Protein: AAA domain-containing protein
Organism: Chromobacterium amazonense
Amino acid sequence: MATTSRTTIIAVTNHKGGVGKTSTCINLATAFARRGLTVLVCDLDGQANASLVIGKLHPSKVQVTIREVLLSGTPEVLTEAIHTDTNLEGVHLIYGSIRLLKIENDLRARVRPAEVLADKIKYLNDIYDIILIDCPPALNLLTHNALAASDYYLIPQPTGDQFGLYGMEDLIGTVSDIKAANPKLKLLGVLMMQHDNRKLVCKTMADTLRSKYSPVFEQTISHSTGVQQANMLKTSVIDLDRNNKVAKEYSKLSKEIISMIGLNDLNQISNEDDEDEEEAHSS
């Protein structure tokens, strides 16, 4: 079940690939850390793309990953799995692994197969302000574990893809089932990705999302090649270029989320992007 401590666990999930889950985890983690919060990213995706960017080691070289955490019977493995020296300052990481793709049968042998991660991650109560879980692009047992362990789930949804709405209905249905194990699980918000309000399809999709789901984040994320450039350089777009439009959008999104979940924005120096934005509007 989700923790009741000050640690907030957020599953970033959508069972479609290419919607921006990993980029959102990477850049939100950076933005939260810049605001003075302690942050852990747990990579639950067998592709381990978040680990490839955040981690200084290749996932194949890491002996203790989230797979070992899930299969181990001792909490000490969790401590061994956490890497504090990463490519993102202030962001810790539990690596993903391609071996996660073959873990489902092992999990199904457990008494409560969807609650294995929740039983492990509870030992991190009060150690981190925020834990972000990068989920696989599937409504499989790993995603179920992420949802059962989380306080909130966040859905990145490109507004240029009207077919994505069908997938969201499946996800909402899965959440309803998971709430039997984790009744505190709530939708933190739908995040409109690759959004361009000048395009009719994006405007129409935005209106549809706001009418069907609540909450939908006020902040949207634009398309930018800077995100791909940052990933190639193993960093966040925020660290690569703080003046990048998407970098500023993720910074503002982190502030919106902090306000929603009742955390304190500890590092006022990190609010320079917000101040720049306010100055631009007032000039």
Remarks:
- The radius of gyration is 18 Å.
- The domain at 8-282 is CATH 3.40.50.300 (Rossmann fold).
- Strands lie at 8-12, 39-43, 82-83, 91-94, 130-134, 152-158, 186-193.
